[in-house]
Amino acid sequence: MGILDKWRRLFQKPRLRCVTLFVTTACDARCDTCFYWRQINTKINQLTLKEYRQIAENLGPVEGIQLSGGEPTLREDLPEIVEAFVTEPWQTIALPTNGLKTDRIVNIVDRIASARPDNRFMVGVSLDGPEELNDRIRGVDGIYRAARRTLQQLASRREAFPNMYLSSLTTVTAVNQNVVAPLLDTLADEGLVDFLTVEVFRDMGPDQSEQSLPDPAILKQIQKRCEELNRGLMNRRMSREAAEALSYTRILNTEQNRVLADQPMSFQCQAGRVSAVIEPDGVVRVCEILEPIGQIRDHDCNLISVLSSPEAQQQIRMIQGHGCACTHCVTLGQSIPYTPTAEIRRRRAQRRIEADMNASETPPDTKA
After folding, report:
1. Are the C-beta atoms of residues 65 and 94 closer than 8 Å to each other?
2. d(Cα 31, Cα 100) in Å, to the nearest integer?
3. pLDDT digits (tens, 9 = 90+) for 159-202
4. SS3 assignment for 102-120
5. Domain ranges in the chain?
């Protein structure tokens, strides 16, 4: 997208840009940080591949397809679902995984990457700390080693699939906040990932969870270190868009920190206008945190019809009126380009980051 297109978009009416597909409730981990824990491994009337194809045909291509679950790779027809929604080279695919079943995950990734060689394909593997703590948080003995093995296997395929980009996914809580920065340093030093991702715990975990929100000061230190490391990592394979990507993260982190400090949001969330969620049984939400607004099967598998319903429009008006606030990275991140104050701040941040990166002759020392 050219610079003129980006300026035009800033003053256009928001349009649907990203759809999150919760493709299964099945999961082979028991994460202490999971906000979806009530639905995990429940029996449902799951959407069929035929229904997904009808949803995709009715919708048309959108910029981003975010896969989720459960563990998305436990759905065998996941590549076919992706094929239904991703038909244009400018679309982006994002796949998070717990990394537990290496061979299965690698097979799924290979099938998607080879079928859509012109699409940017982002694969994130969850790691929340050193081995013992990570396995405790993730609820499965051996999941740390499995996730590391999965990262190594996927990293070895980057030459075959230059459209595939790897990241680590780390949820920051009060329990692991003191070990996240060393984990990020290790991952950056090893070079298995193309960028690092940190997310703040949503405080929506299982009732028996030992997790809680991190210390705000420590969280900001982690976010700063993550940006420093990503400058070096992104220069390897993503140098052209590094500053833009980092500026989005900086604005997003600033907003998340405001919410955690009980301060009002500084820009409008556009959930339901730029992003929407379809659950495995066809339930639709404007945001995965809010209550359902319809069943897509009742609307002939037409997502726009569900989002145009009175229930959806009432919830969207509530969001637009700042009736809720959260730290959800997808909805907030997708909202930035359509919110003039946030987008102008982001572009200023991008210019500052570009200047800093140009002034540095070498990437930051990832061992600092």
Report:
1. yes
2. 12
3. 999 999 999 999 999 999 999 999 999 999 999 999 999 999 98
4. HHHHHHHHHHHHHHCCCCE
5. 14-359
